[in-house]
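Reviewer 2 asked us to include a model.

Predict the structure of this chain.
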Amino acid sequence: MNASAADTPVTLAPDCEYWLSKFINYLRYERGLSDHTIKNYARQLEQIALSLALTSWQQLNQAAVKKAVAIARKQNLGVRSTALRLSALRTFCKYLLRHEVINVDPVEGISAPKAEKPLPKQMSADDMSALLNESDDEEIVIRDQAMFELMYGCGLRLSELTGLELKHITSDRQLRVTGKGNKQRMLPIGRKAWEALQRWLAIRSHWGAGLDEALFISRQKRRISNRQVGNRLTEMARRQTLNQRINPHKLRHSFATHVLESSSDLRAVQELLGHANLSTTQVYTHLDFQHLAKVYDTAHPRARKKKD
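Predicted model (structure tokens):
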């Protein structure tokens, strides 16, 4: 069975149509790909040939491939579709190389555009309250509440939480955090987080904590690990019957969302999160701690003062 006329439209230049037809037959008979996959490959290669006005595939070079990618973007082709087009061309060029139609692979060294990672969905303030308001005097639960109140209350990264030591807490309710690139920042500790932290510090010595200066330790009397924190958060969500998957980063993202929604102060949120390497950092001015504390105290759901 030969390739149908629909597989290679007559609008292509004869040389382009000839080699595309041979490639389609190769995919069908030698590689045994499905008709759906073959049609996708053919469609992508046809679009490249037409958009570049090629009369021969020998005209392909790196500049032409980059131009094809740029044209795809101008056509508002999605990241995945652009990557599929480039993948089809990469496979086709290897075929052309084997048949000595071209001497150099024009796609080599050209990377497909990367899809932006979607931000995790934040938890609502009510769901966060339901997660953290656990009434239990068991020591491990007291430790967990302190961990997650502090993580959500200060917008900490997981590694920042597990890296905390006793000396990082000040008497005036501040937390010294070492973030990415060993950059330090001072963060205000909200009322709920401070109360939970005091309950944990009152029983921390029961765990033989004198052997380690880590703020949060495991039952094995060692600094708690990232994996243990994730497991304990999953267990807490299970106990509180929250019908959603929760991971440590979701607490940090929820912190940022809730403070930003309440304050609309993007610069303050950036400082609180320690996003020193954002591409937009250069347009922001440094904020002093008093301003950060004011934004935090008025905007964060777990830091607001009780009404009289």
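The CA atoms of residues 62 and 279 lie 29 Å apart. The beta strands are 174-178, 184-188. We have added this to the supplementary material.
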